[in-house]
Amino acid sequence: MFLLGVGSLQLFVQSNWTGPPVHLKIQDFLPSALLQKFCEPKMLHAAILKMLVLDGESVYSLTSHPILLLIARIILVNSRHKLASLQMLSWWTLRCVNIHQQLLEERSPELFTLAQTCIKQVTEAETLFTDGESWHLAVQFHLECAYTFLYYYEYKKAKQCFNMAKDITKLQINLTGALGKRTRFQEKYVAQLILDVQRTDEFLLPHSELSPAPTPLENLTMNYDLNDDTVLNEIKLADADQYQVPDLCAEELAVILGICIDFQKNNPIHKLTEEELLAFTSCLLSQPKFWAIQTSALLLRTKLEKGSTRRMERAMKQTQALADQFEDANTSVSERMKIFYCCQVPPHWAIQRQLASLLFELGCTSSALQIFEELEMWEDAVICYERAGQHGKAEEILRRELEKKETPGLYCLLGDVLKDHQYYDKAWELSRHRSARAQRSKGLLHLRNREFRECVECFERSVQINPMQLGVWFSLGCAYIALEGYEGAAKAFQRCVTLEPDNAEAWNNLSTAYIRLKQKIKAFRTLQEALKCNYEHWQIWENYLLTSTDVGEFSEAIKAYHRLMDLREKYKDTQVLAILVRAVVDGMADRTGEVSSGLKGKLQELLGRVTSRVTNDGEIWRLYARLYGNGQNDSGEDIEKLLQCLTKAHKCEMQSSDWEKDVSSFKDVVKGAIEIAHVAIKCSKNKSNHQEALQILSSARLNLRGLSSKAKQLFVDVTSNEVHSEIADEVTTMDNMIAKLQELSNQLRDQC
């Protein structure tokens, strides 16, 4: 019975993944009584597909021989308890789950739960991998687990599994630079990015005969040469022997492919990332041995090369060859099945879809549409028509297909094209309230129309059917924030970060919800997680700065301010700086209860950096001055720095417009000048050089004299010829201070 389940799964994989197509008549093995219930084979096909629907997610309509997967599922999943004594059962169940998931439109929580159970059971069955002879099985299992975790957003667990597989093989895999030539006319060798693969201490894996034997080259997909008049087919290294890749077995090649896919998933779409991935594909394609690895590497390379004008032609030819290989009847199925499950090869329709997308990007719209329509990928066909501006044609093909057969998916697409809620409602009713897609699409339309309340209701229904919809949880959180329903937003974004822990925007939005809920410590922690995911996002750093200041994490606030200045050259937030200066000067306690005075040096360093960038803000200069005390009981160095800061602050204030016309502003400027005079006196007393001391006093005196003269010009009563009473005290103080400074200057001159 177990072998029937495994055989059915293998045949199903051949029918939809490896090829060649399986010629199977369903009436040969199903009882006639069952067949009589269905008038046409299409009805039976539709009934089987319906049985494979999970969590409201539809199965691809042109899946070949779905009865084989149903048989495999009944035996390996539904009847597992009857076959519990078989050691390999859970592993094959995991494979069945992974294959089933690839047919569904979205991730299925039910399948993920089952996959986790299977992984746990196989891991606990220690006898399976303890024998030294079974190292190759252990590598394959860890790779299959890694791909499962990767698909369900469990990136950390996936990385652990990839690393465990790598550790077993004792491979050292590193991206490095090597001198080489990339073009035909290049005269000098320059640094090129390559993948360096070495075995630890020339370690040789035991029982290598148990690893699958390489497939003959003629049975592998052809790797097309570049044939460019400038760019070489592969990098020509100056010292090729130094970076010679050892002869790798199936599991070792699969490990390199796994590390490559993990690298792709954990790095942003960027030109540098593409170059790094091309180094991986070049290494894998340098040893063409196994169909699954060759196909996966070629597919990745075509995706990376399609944006290059010199490589686009090869990408096109290569994708066509990959799509055509499925129909090759001369190939050996057993050769293609070697290490298939630990390479995550896409189904044949996904390769054809990639071909159609490439054709569309090249402007071959009619050819792309023909493929999409043959594959019954109506969503892609609709996008094609929409981008080509043929909106009427998109509606026409959907209505044509609906006349043949009404399905929730087609009604959803018609709703997308016409932006009409009635079609989503029709899809919802047709699915008997089980279509997560119908509520998801209806919710997105409400969101575009800013109808947030209705949008929330639709998204809630959608995630109730399938809780693994990352995008829906994110949009639900945004809708809740728009409605100021911060508890709902916190719950939605919490689910986002649970599904995808590396989603920086979700962490940031979660912190916003916590701030509005007055849960500032939680907001602080979530922002720390956000920054782990995205260190370059200045808005997240700004939120982190404000939250750190708010909760009393002053050290973190200083660090955040520095990072913001790295990202935005002239960034300033005077309010935050004022709080930090007050905390340090007044010796306020931080969140942990420690006195903040110890941060004085770090804050002085920060303000030094700020004032070097923002030189014209008097308030920031005054804050900087506060850090150096008030001129009393301070070191000579601090007093001199204080005088410099106050002088610069005073200059900034005097450069601002209209301070002379407003009495209040004028008094503030005078107050600053008097403060400078007091500090100047203190500073002059610390100077051993009388000439320097005289210069400091003279500068302060001249400044006050100018202000005093201006006050007597601007604020004088015409009738009495006296200074206005509201500024008289300031003028008197200035005149007294001028006299004092003059007296001190005279004393210093006498000593010279």
Structural class: mainly alpha
Distance between termini?
111 Å
Mean pLDDT: 90
- Give the low-confidence spans: none
* Number of beta strands: 3
Q: Categorize the overall geometry.
A: elongated
- Cα-atom Rg, whole angstroms? 36 Å
Number of helices: 34
What level of helicity do the residues show? 55-70%
Sheet with most strands: strand arrangement: 2-1-3
Strand content: under 5%
Sheet with the most strands?
A: 3 strands, antiparallel
Layout of strands and helices, then pairs:
Elements lengths: L1 H17 L13 H4 L5 H11 L14 H13 L10 H13 L7 H16 L10 H17 L3 H15 L1 E13 L6 E10 L31 E7 L12 H16 L5 H15 L5 H15 L6 H13 L8 H4 L11 H14 L3 H10 L3 H10 L3 H14 L3 H11 L2 H10 L5 H13 L3 H14 L4 H13 L3 H14 L4 H13 L3 H14 L4 H14 L2 H14 L6 H12 L14 H14 L4 H9 L9 H20 L7 H23 L4 H25 L10 H27 L1
Antiparallel strand pairs: 1-2, 1-3
Helix pairs in contact: 1-4, 1-5, 4-5, 5-6, 7-8, 7-9, 8-9, 9-10, 10-11, 11-12, 12-14, 14-15, 15-16, 16-17, 17-18, 18-19, 18-20, 19-20, 20-21, 21-22, 22-23, 22-24, 23-24, 24-25, 25-26, 26-27, 27-29, 28-30, 29-30, 30-31, 31-32, 32-33, 32-34, 33-34
